[in-house]
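re the bet — no i am not wrong, look at it urself. input seq straight from the record:
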Amino acid sequence: MKAPLPRSTRPRRRRLVQGAVALLVAAAVPALTTATADGAGGGSPRAARNVILLIGDGMGDSEITLARDYTVGAGGRLHMDRFPSTGTYTTYSVDSQGRPDYVTDSAASASAWATGHKTVNGRISKTPGTDTALPTILELARAKGLATGSVTTAELTDATPAAMAAHATDRDCQGPADMELCPRDTIARGGPGSIAEQSVRLRPDVLLGGGRQRFDQKITQGPYRGMTVAQQAEKLGYRVVTDARGLRTAAPGRPLLGLFAPGAVPVEWTGRPAAAGGTEPQRCVTANPARPAGTPTLGQQTAKALELLTAGARAGGADRGFFLQVEGASIDKQGHEADPCGQIGETAAFDRAVKVARDYADRHPGTLVITTADHGHSSQIVPLDATPPGLSSTLVTDEGSRLKVSYSTTTTPEDGQEHTGTQVRIAAQGPYAERVQGVTDQTELFTTITEALRLR
C-alpha cells in the first residue's frame, strides 16, 4: 500500500470553530495623491504595468537579521534592505466569528493578501465562517488579461502558492488523493477539486516549484478522471519540465509547469541543527548533497518566470503587463526544524531572487516590486553567554565573529518550532510603493496591488 503523503510543516493548528458568518476584516486604504510611477512623490499615482510580489515565508526581522549578520556582516545590507519604501504589517488571522487569532499560519496569512480578507488558520482563500470562495489577485489579473505566474521553493500546492490559485477548506487538500478534510470541495460534490487540479485549471502562464508527488496523483472525479494532474496540465496546454535544463530551454507561447522535486525543493545550505545545550561553533556548508544536480535556484526560476511573463504580456502586440508571486518557502521550514544554516541559506537564496526582481524593475519602469513575509518565526539572536531553555546553535560568521541563535517556542521540539505573532517587514519600489510605509495590515497589500494594476 502506498505510504501517505507527509502533512505540511506548520504550527499546531487550533481546532476550527464552527459557527456564524465571520466578520470579514479588510481594512480600507485611503487614496493617496502624492506618488509618481517610482513611488517618490510629486503627482497622482500611476498604474503599475507589472507587479512582482516576493514572500519570504517565516521571514521576520530576526530571520532577516540572522542572514544579514552571517552573510554580509552586521553593518552590511542585503538586497531586500535597499528598497526606498519600508514599513511593517500585522499578520493575525481570525476565528470563525471574526475574533483575532494572534498567531497565523501560512494559509490564513497568504489568503489575507491574496483576497483582502482575514480567515481561519488552515483555510485557503475562503471565508472563515461560511467557507465561501473569495476572488484572488491572480484570478482578477487573469480575468483582466494580464500574464500571471507563481514561483516557490515549496510544493506548488503548499499554502502560499495555493492561496493565489485555489480555494480549499483545508490547506492539506493538495492533490486528488488528499481530499479527506475537504468533502465539500470534491468534484463529485460540485466543488472545485484539489489544490493541484484548481491550480492548473486556472491556467496561470507560469507555475514553478516543487510538489511533483501531488501532480502525479490520479484524478478520480470529473472530466479528467483517470489522468494524473500533470497529464491534465498537458491537456490544458502546459509544457511540463523537471530540471534546470528544461526550464532554461522553455520558450514562450504556451504555459509552463515546472516540478523540480517530489516535495519541497531541497535547501541550498546545510549544517548542524540547534540542540539542547547548544552546539560547538560551526560554519555553514554552502552545499547540500541531497539537492539533485540540475535543481534550479529560486533566482533562476524567478528570472525565467520574468522572461516568459514579459513575452506573454506582449503577445498580440499590446503590453498587458503581468502579476508574479515568488516565495522563498523553506526559510519557514528550516525554522520549524531549528536549523539555522538551512534557514540562512534559504534567506540568502531569497535575497538573490529579490535582486533579480529589482534588476528587472530597473530595466522596466512601471514595475512595482514588493517584498514581505507571511509571519514571523522562532529564531532569536541571543548573547553568547546565554543559556536558552530550548535549542540553540553557535555560528562563526563571515566576519569571524561568533553568533548564538536560540529556538525556544515550544517545550516539545520534536513537534517543530512555532510561528510567532509579531508584525513583519514590508518594503517596495515602483508605483504605489509608498502604500507600504508605516504600520498596515497584510489585507491592505491586496488593495495596494489591485489598485496598482487597476484590477477593480
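see?? The chain has one domain: 50-273+295-380+420-452. told u. also The chain has a mean pLDDT of 92. so pay up
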